[in-house]
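Please, why this fold?
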Amino acid sequence: MTGRVAALCLSTDKPTVMFSERPGNPGSYAVDNDYTTYSCTNNTRGRPWIVIDLEADYLISEIILTAPNVGGDDRNIVDLVIFINSVIY
């Protein structure tokens, strides 16, 4: 063993805040660990965003995003930017 830990989904059921949720596709669907649901913004312009509060500090070595293929459109993640921040209040 090299000291690596098995993959763990830290975001499951964590609180989310999302830019302009589309009705029926809330931010909580992004972290429900159910591949039949998906979150979606109600925005056609601008840069939509989602914040997932992991509720603790973690050393993160890998991020995996899964995008749904909605209506045959495979262009669901475009110009993706990931910010990782630890905020102390």
About this structure: The radius of gyration is 15 Å. The chain has a mean pLDDT of 77. The first strand starts at residue 16 and ends at 18. The chain has one domain: 1-84.
